[in-house]
Amino acid sequence: MYTQSFNVPDGSDEAKSAGLRAVAKPLTASEAALQAQFDTRIDADGKIEPRDWMPEAYRKTLVRQISQHAHSEIVGMLPEGNWISRAPSLKRKAILIAKVQDEGGHGLYLYSAAETLGTSRDQMLAALHSGKAKYSSIFNYPTLNWADVGVVGWLVDGAAIMNQIPLCRCSYGPYARAMIRVCKEESFHQRQGYEALLVMMKGTAEQQAMVQDAVNRWWWKCLAMFGPPDADSPNSVQGMRWGIKRISNDDLRQKFIDATVPQAKVLGVTLPDPELKWNEERQHHDHGAIDWDEFWSTVNGHGPCNKERLGTRVKAHNDGQWVRDAALAHARKQQQRNLKEAA
Ligand SMILES: [Fe+2]
Ligand SMILES: [Fe+2]
User: Fold this and answer.
1) From the CA of 74, how far away is ligand 2's center (Å)?
2) What residues form DSSP beta bridges with 279?
3) Is the overall model pTM greater than 0.85, yes or no?
4) Which ligand is nearest to the CA of 189?
């Protein structure tokens, strides 16, 4: 999964000094030529590859965005992973294991894509584990019952797809290519969630009430996943100029709402927004106001599960230390053997 548009500053010095930007040093003649080449390629909708020259700010933005995305995939395994042992049937358990495993795979592709920009996996993980790096805030909410697992698939993965499909056309080659495979898997995630909910909605009144309750708790949080309104997202303009971001936060949010309303109707649930209605003139749905204070409070570490998620993640990393040590020792041994044979 998933994004909150990935333009949220990490808890870094850069964020603290926002507004106090250093004046960029003037480009040398050769840098100016490289910059012109870069701009031409971006304008022609071409791809930038790891060995190509790129402006430092483009590199930094991508490192932040791709690593936040990778962290989101990995932390995103936790709320659903909690339900693997409690899935209601063998079929549901097998599907959920496959989905959670996919998310782990997405994280690994994305860490690899970020590494091509000159950052190391260790650096990225250290930033996550220290709480400096952000990940999608949606994972700081609990999955309280089985219907939550279905709603996460339908709405959270559904929002992720909206965000991620345009990233398949991102100007940075390794990121764009990783996203093509990720998106194929995300559409399976969305459908399995929706199908699980369809089954529950054909069940007992209690099951139907569980689905409605889960939808009520997740709907607004999913709308916030698209990130702050365009007017409050100054980074988005630069991201669009660089061909990293293709569609604005508000436009993606609108697409998601327009696509989801008919799905909710088929399912037989009510989306918890009394202001949600079709606007004939705009040919889109209007919706109520999103609680951005809650969003920022969760982004800044005060959501219901922030501490638990990070604690679980750090423990899993520490518990896996012996595996990394063993793999490194094996690699060293093999290297020595090869050297001996070559001598
Ligand atoms: Fe997913
Ligand atoms: Fe994913």
Assistant:
1) 9
2) 284
3) yes
4) 1
Whole-number Å distance, alpha carbon 190 to ligand 2 midpoint, is 10
- Binned at pLDDT 50, 70 and 90, residue 5 comes out as low
- For residue 261, report the phi and psi dihedrals to the nearest 5 degrees: -55, -50
The ligand with the least distance to the CA atom of 159 is: 1
Which ligand has its closest atom nearest to the C-alpha of 104?
2
Q: For 54, left (φ over 0), alpha (ψ -120 to 50), or beta?
A: beta
**Please, what's the largest Cα pairwise distance for the chain?**
79
Contact 33, 93 (CB under 8 A): no
**Entry field: residues in the chain:** 343
Pairing of strands 277-279, 284-286: antiparallel
pLDDT at 69 over 80: yes
Q: How far is the CA of 102 from the centre of ligand 2 (A)?
A: 7
Ligand 2 center from residue 254 Cα (angstroms): 21
The answer to whether residues 5 and 227 touch, using CB atoms and an 8 Å cutoff, is yes
SS3 35: helix
